[in-house]
């Protein structure tokens, strides 16, 4: 089976290409940017480029996108061109080429305003049943692309699975207060409780989705580290997250204290990956309990794949101390 990976110069695209190569699987990487993992450079909105790239392809993993960090630097039309028109071109050419499975990398950002409860409300419990309320052009165009995927499944029978991934990038948060208050590793370890995944697990979810797509037909799945929280924890999480952690993980404060780390005072949402685990057979290896085990053993908690891919940034220029400008 030959797999076409779009966005092969990006974080997830490179991680997929590394993993497919390591498994001796046939893969073609395409991207606007040349890279050691890109076979063909071009624009996914260019129909001729997409058609040529689709020759001999049996499955597509579509990771190429304009991201949230581009919202302040790129016009809305660029998001429409890449995230909507590019996805449409890939879907149409996949149907024409008789592709057996199509996996679309979406984002938990499509939930938008649904992720932010009122100050006196419990934290939000985010499953696939929560209605998206996009807050910017990024979330809006990713949601529109999801709907195109569903349309092409219904109209043409193309097996398509949509993976709404949470954070897996290694770059620092765009929130200056959070960057100042928390060491990068500390913040990202905290996020594995409720809104982050290791890129190794994200790759495995995509590869499982390729295998399961023909049987499932269409589906949307949240891809995030398995949370230790339950719905009954939500009220206290939004008031006093450390109190919940002390009950669930009595050792966490000592392990954190030895490194000068702290837990966030409040957690406002919890991503639930139960559907991906049950329907894809996905078994993410990276989660908060694993982090604590690594801290106790003085080992790195991030996967070798995450370290190998590293931080790429999203722009050709730098913005002082900001990882990217905020709209």
Tags for this entry?
single chain; 327 residues; alpha/beta; Rossmann fold; seven-stranded parallel beta sheet; two-stranded parallel ribbon; Epimerase_deHydtase; NAD(P)-bd_dom_sf; Lipid_A_modif_metabolic_enz
Concise structural overview:
By secondary structure, the protein is of the alpha/beta class. 42% of the residues lie in helices and 12% in strands.
Word description of this protein:
The relative contact order is 0.14. With 327 residues, the chain is an alpha/beta fold. It has one domain (3-309): Rossmann fold (3-Layer(aba) Sandwich), CATH 3.40.50.720. It has 12 helices and 9 strands. The protein is globular and about 55 Å long. The longest helix is centred in the N-terminal third of the chain and has 22 residues, at 76-97. It comes from Dyella marensis.
Structural class by SSE content: alpha/beta
The helix content, as a percent range, equals 40-55%
CATH architecture: 3-Layer(aba) Sandwich
Query: What's the total helix number?
Result: 12
Say how many strands there are: 9
Determine and state the CATH class.
Answer: Alpha Beta
Rg over C-alpha atoms, rounded to the nearest angstrom: 20 Å
Low-confidence stretches: none
CATH superfamily: NAD(P)-binding Rossmann-like Domain
Mean pLDDT: 93
Strand order, largest beta sheet: 3-2-1-4-5-7-8
Whole-number count of domains? 1
- Provide the succession of SSEs: EHEEHEHEEHEHHHEHHEHHH
Approximately what portion of the residues adopt beta-strand conformation?
A: 5-15%
* CATH overall fold name: Rossmann fold
Report how far apart the termini are: 42 Å
What global shape is seen? globular
The profile of the biggest β sheet is:
7 strands, parallel
